[in-house]
Amino acid sequence: MANLEIDFCGIKSPNPFWLASAPPSNSAYQVQKAFEQGWGGAVWKTIGAPVLNVCNRYGTIDYKGSKIIGLNNVELISDRPLEVNLKEIAETKRNFPNHAVIASVMVESTKQAWQDIVKRVEETGADGFELNFGCPHGMSERGMGAAMGQVPEYTCMVTEWVMDVATKPVIVKLTPNVTDIVQPARAAVKGRASAVSLINTINSIIGVDLDTFEIRPNVGGKGGHGGYAGPAVKPIALHLLSAVASDPEIQKAKMPISGMGGVETWRDALEFILLGATSVQVCTAVMHYGFRIVEDMIDGLSNWMDERGYTSIDQLIGKSVHRISSFGDFDLGFQTVARVDPAKCIQCNLCFIACNDAAHQCIDMKDLKFKGEPNERPYPVVREEDCVGCDLCSTVCPVDDCISMVEINTGRPHITWNELVKTKPEVLEWDSMEEYRKHAKIHIH
Amino acid sequence: MAEHYKPVKYKAWEMTLKERFQEFYPPLSEREAITEANRCLYCYDAPCLTACPTHIDIPTFIKKIATGNVKGSAKTILESNLMGATCARVCPVQELCEGACVLNDEHKPIAIGRLQRYATDYAIQRDFKFFKKGKPNGKKVAVIGAGPAGLSCAGELAKQGFDVTCYEKKPLAGGLDTYGIVVFREPIEVSLREVKMIEDLGVNIKTNVEIGKDIKLEELVDQYDAVFISIGLGAVPQMEIPGENIPGVLDGLEFIEETKTMPLDQIKFGKRVAVIGAGNTAIDAATISRRLGAERVMMVYRRSEAEMPAYHFEYEFALGEGVSFMFLTQPIAVIGDKQVEGLKCVRMDLGEPDASGRRAPVPIPNSEFVIDCDMVIKAIGQKKYTGFMDALAKLGIGSVKGYIKIDLKTNRTDHPKIFAGGDCVRSQGEASTVMAVQDGKIAAQAITAQLVGEAAKKQPVSASVR
């Protein structure tokens, strides 16, 4: 069986699966139960400033019969007394010396407050800190959480305060509620942080009750933005992770990243690892199914690694990062066309209507006499010379491997947009662009 | 048949003989399996897990199909039940796991059996080996009878490091999984793969060896540290009616066995077949007859529809196959000279409840009539091996209603070294593969505890309690 152990800036963990700082990591009971069931680490639910919670706290999006593809919350950081949390963190670390126990902290924005909490947490024996610069609701209005993470200068300042006294690794948790996540990530580097983690939850309103016009979740007739998480946010998280992981300044700092946002299965976790995460944090999936999901995460990941000959997580971290590119560097000469396999086609014709109404009108309904039956219904057939290779038809097709996107050689030059505008700046004018297209045999219909 | 099953359309005249004996339920496609797996709620402390006699961690194996960890899924199944591929096909799932599914009330249950088949087939196709022979512990166990109970016990013991020898009187191991399940429910290859898996664990299976004839039971008891008896039951008993020995009167189990071991076009079948009995074996004999080409198949049963022992889904299956049922009909003689020409019967009525608690059938005077038929198939239960039972009695082992008496917690008999399981101990409850597999497991655990100490038990993931 593959070795799933990781070393996250000195924090050892039997596997890359950590509980994210959230309701599932609220107490010693929960974290120790999670460790017993296989979780490699846990970031304790944020401790620090005193708070009071409200009800209801959660709102969810169900989609076509599937429960909870997205979940938002207006719950605050831990509302249990600081002393109790510190005692339980110490007990948990004592009972599980080989698991990663990380304290998430958040206090008011003074040097004194931050340095005090760091010193107190250090006494528990916890393996490290995660600075909560991301909580988007409740705390941000009090000048904490996302209010810190949205201003790179603050991120850097508080990180420096912490680093001045911390002897254990410090992870800066980034908020996605910014225009460019690379800026606060660089601020964490500048503040000498040991690592970053991302993403925290995304600002959201989950919905409106059509009978009462109330906002969900409904807090006594009112509602407000809460942090959005769950499977639906995974693509956003993967993007922000890849933006940080591919940033030259972050790469230069050799800073490990803890990835999260919509991880439910070992496959999700693996995608985060391939895009640069060393550890992967999970919350919503545990809130839906319980700690037991980790058994399949471990089993599925190690089976996948065994089948492909990987023996350690290190061999996988960031393996897809070099493929993260930008539009200007894509090959304009790369051409695919769609092909429909009539033997697999069930004639739902979703590809036809998608292409006809929403793409480039290059699928025809043809009588193929494929089955030779009288009154045979027509089949969708791609007019390849007109297909732009957008991939819409294959994504709407309900049958596996029925529509495939096939690479074809058009004889067009393999050139990127950046190269093109450098060598032929005139294409930025329509007349010259038309001329270039004619020359390059790019036919737009 | 539950509506989520999609049986092939059965139009005999449009199918070749070979096609008619293909597995009735087609395998699930990957998309079907994933869609169905995602429908599972992944209940905590799930009732399906409890309803399975072998306690397969069903929510976990289904979750693993959903996440694409099908290899892990198969392992989860086989950890609890080495005969998982057979059980996926033959278990009365409506009565067990699927019957307990929480979605029964509001929805339709998860197709657990078919998902189990998907995962175990996936593992078989890729030849995954999940278990290894344990470190030898120096103890030897003999297993008598290589049916599902014997193979399960042998496999579990081999995993614990026992040196296991399995004695089987038939040419092939697998017991009724190999010989007694209709081929369109389970092809013989599935059972033989399971036999191979047990052999790969280091179990020595000796076929064509009959205990009591080739080797004395006492010798085994002397030579081995423990003996597990899983001899099953014998042939169909005599009906004690005139004409029973006329050519054309068949034993239901032997008839099923022919479809598993002979070329289909060489099996003799009647044009008009009367099947006596209404249990699952009788249904099998009837549906096989239809699929072989019998024009008319009548099931003759002395009680009514309500008392018939066959599973309801089997009854519906038979109806769909064009089998007709003659309830409250008691055979009294087979008519014919050199060949069966008819079955003489008497009409029955239901009287007061008998010892079995079911209303006793009572003949209606002067209601005799003859069913025209050229073949009669008997499927009225199985005989106990009385000779073997006598040998056991000499060792001080008691019996219950002709079945071997065991302690239900350990499957130990009255003899400290001798354990038993499978149909030969089933004095109460349904005889089935899955019960036999569990017997083997229980006995293996008890033998391990008795000879080397308690073995560690794996907690199911979907019901682990702190």
Observed structural traits:
heterodimer; A: 445 residues; alpha/beta; TIM Barrel; Alpha-Beta Plaits; 2 domains; eight-stranded parallel beta barrel; four-stranded antiparallel β-sheet; 15 helices; B: 466 residues; Fumarate Reductase Iron-sulfur Protein, Chain B, domain 2; FAD/NAD(P)-binding domain; five-stranded parallel β-sheet; globular; disordered N terminus
Description:
The complex is a heterodimer of chains A (445) and B (466). Chain A has 15 helices and 20 strands. Chain A is an alpha/beta fold. Chain A has an 8-stranded parallel barrel, surrounded by 8 helices. In chain A, strands 5-6-14-11 form a 4-stranded antiparallel β-sheet, with no helix packed on it. The mean pLDDT of chain A is 96. Chain A folds into 2 domains: 6-321, Aldolase class I (TIM Barrel), CATH 3.20.20; 327-410, Alpha-Beta Plaits, CATH 3.30.70.20. In chain A, helix 6 links the parallel strand 9 (170-173) and strand 10 (195-198). In chain A, helix 5 runs parallel beside helix 6 (182-190) and helix 9 crosses helix 11. A 5-stranded parallel β-sheet of chain B has the order 3-2-1-4-16, with helices on both faces. Chain B has a 5-stranded parallel β-sheet with strand order 5-13-6-7-8. In chain B, strands 9, 10, 11 and 12 form a 4-stranded antiparallel β-sheet that branches. Chain B has helices at residues 17-20, 30-39, 47-51, 58-66, 70-80, 84-90, 97-100, 112-126, 148-159, 176-179, 188-200, 217-223, 252-261, 280-292, 312-320, 386-394, 433-451, and strands at 140-144, 163-167, 204-206, 226-229, 249-251, 272-276, 296-300, 324-326, 329-336, 340-353, 359-363, 369-372, 375-378, 399-400, 403-404, 418-420. In chain B, helix 6 runs antiparallel to helix 8 (112-126) and helix 14 (280-292) packs parallel to helix 15 (312-320). Helices cover 35% and strands 16% of the residues of chain B. Chain B is of the alpha/beta class. Chain B has 3 domains: 26-125, Orthogonal Bundle (Fumarate Reductase Iron-sulfur Protein, Chain B, domain 2), CATH 1.10.1060.10; 140-234 and 384-457, FAD/NAD(P)-binding domain (3-Layer(bba) Sandwich), CATH 3.50.50.60; 237-378, FAD/NAD(P)-binding domain (3-Layer(bba) Sandwich), CATH 3.50.50.
